[in-house]
Known about the structure:
The chain is of the alpha/beta class. The chain folds into 2 domains: about 10-155, 3-Layer(aba) Sandwich (Rossmann fold), CATH 3.40.50.720; about 160-335, Lactate dehydrogenase/glycoside hydrolase, family 4, C-terminal (L-2-Hydroxyisocaproate Dehydrogenase, Chain A, domain 2, Alpha-Beta Complex). About 45% of the residues lie in helices and about 20% in strands. The chain has helices spanning about 20-30, 50-60, 75-80, 105-120, 135-145, 160-175, 215-220, 225-240, 240-250, 255-270, 315-340; strands at about 10-15, 40-45, 70-75, 85-90, 130, 155, 180, 185, 195, 200-205, 210, 280-285, 295-305, 305-310. The strands form 3 sheets. The chain has a 9-stranded mixed beta sheet. Helix 4 crosses helix 5 (about 135-145) and helix 6 (about 160-175) crosses helix 8 (about 225-240). The two termini are about 30 Å apart. The structure holds 1,4-dihydronicotinamide adenine dinucleotide and oxaloacetate ion. Oxaloacetate ion binds near residues 95, 134, 243 and 246. This is Malate dehydrogenase. Belongs to the LDH/MDH superfamily. MDH type 2 family. GO terms for molecular function: L-malate dehydrogenase (NAD+) activity. InterPro entries: L-lactate/malate_DH (IPR001557), Lactate/malate_DH_C (IPR022383), Lactate/malate_DH_N (IPR001236), Lactate_DH/Glyco_Ohase_4_C (IPR015955), Malate_DH_AS (IPR001252), Malate_DH_type2 (IPR010945), NAD(P)-bd_dom_sf (IPR036291).
Amino acid sequence: MIESGEPQTITVTGAGGQIGYAMLFRIASGALLGPDVPVRLRLLEIPQGLRSAQGAALELGDCAFGLLDSIEVTDDPARAFDGANIALLVGSRPRGPGMERGDLLAANGAIFGPQGAALNAGAADDIRVAVVGNPANTNALIAAAHAPDIPGERFTALTRLDHNRAVGQLALRLGVPVSRISGVSIWGNHSATQVPDINHATVADEHGVWHPVPERLAEVFGSAPAAEQWLAGEFIPRVAKRGAEIIEVRGSSSVGSAAAAAIDHVRDWVAGTGADHTSVALASDGSYAVPQGLVSSFPARSVGGQWHIVQGLSITPAVQLRIDASVAELVAERDAVAALGLLG
Ligand SMILES: NC(=O)C1=CN([C@@H]2O[C@H](COP(=O)(O)OP(=O)(O)OC[C@H]3O[C@@H](n4cnc5c(N)ncnc54)[C@H](O)[C@@H]3O)[C@@H](O)[C@H]2O)C=CC1
Ligand SMILES: O=C([O-])CC(=O)C(=O)O
C-alpha cells in the first residue's frame, strides 16, 4: 500500500500526445493517488514528441500543483522507468477512420518489448503497469514477456473505458444516474469483439433498493426477449464500437474519456474498488477457461492493492459464445506477435 506523504514516481509514455496531455494535469492534481501523495512525473517521448511533452511540463509548472514534487522529460526509457511505481504506457499510434485496433499490432507492438525490458531493469518493486496504447491487451502481453522479474499480475491493459461506456449507456436507457448502476462486466479484448455483460448488473431504485438489471430491462422493453434484442442489437455493438463512433464524430480517437478511464483504473487498483467490481484486462489465471497468460478483460475487484478476478459468475450461453470469439481473437493476436518475434 502507498503511504501518505511518500512521493510516488509515475511514468507516462507518449506524454506529448493527446491522452498524455489530458491525463497529466489530473495526475498532478491528485486524481490518481489522492490528496496526500506527492507525485514525481517522468514523461517519456520519442525525439519528435519531446517539444510537446516539454510544453506540457512548462504548463504543469504554471499550475503550481501542491502535490507535484518534480517533472522530468526524457526520450530515454531507462531513465523514464528508473524507480517507477506506476507506468501508464500510452505512447503509440492511434488508429484512424476505417481501421481496427488490431491493424496497429505491427506498428505499435515493437514499442512495448523494449519498454517491458526497461521496466524490468529499473522499475520499483511495487511497479504497476497500465497499458493504454492499442492494441492494449496484446501490447501488455508483449511488455510482460520482456519483464521476467516483474510478477505478471502487475501488467494490465485498459478496458475501463469500455466498462465506463457500458455503465453510461445502461444508465441512459434506464433513466438513472450512473451511481445507481453496479456489477457491469467487460470480457475479452479491447476491440469490437469485446463482451459487455449486464447479466450480473443491478440498478438501485429511488429508495436505494437494488434490482437485477435484466429484470428492469424486461420491464422497460415489455418482455425479456425484447430486452435481449436491445442488448444484442444495440447495447453491445454501441459499446463495443464506441471508439469508432468517437473517431467518426470527433475526427480522432477518444482522448478525455480515455485519460479519465486510465486514471479510474490505476486509482481503483491502488485504493481498492470496494464492494462493486470493475473491468480490467489482466493475465488470465485460467479463470472462466480463458487460456492462462492471455491478457483478457475480466470483472475484477482490487483488494489490498491487488486485482482479483470475480469468481463464480454464471455465464449465459450467448455471452459464452461472444467470450469465445473475443478470446480466439486474442489468441490470434498473440500468435501474430509471436510470429513477428515480439514476444522475445
Ligand atoms: N485502451 C483504450 O481504451 C484507449 C487506447 N487509446 C490508444 O492510446 C494511444 C495514444 O493515443 P493518443 O494519445 O490519442 O495518440 P497521440 O498520437 O496523440 O499520442 C501518442 C504519443 O505517443 C508518442 N510515442 C510514440 N511512440 C512512442 C514511444 N516508443 N515511446 C514514447 N512515446 C511514444 C508519440 O510521439 C505521441 O506523442 C493510441 O494507441 C490509441 O489507440 C486511445 C483511446 C482509448
Ligand atoms: O477506438 C480507438 O481506436 C481508441 C480506443 O481504443 C477507444 O476509444 O476505445
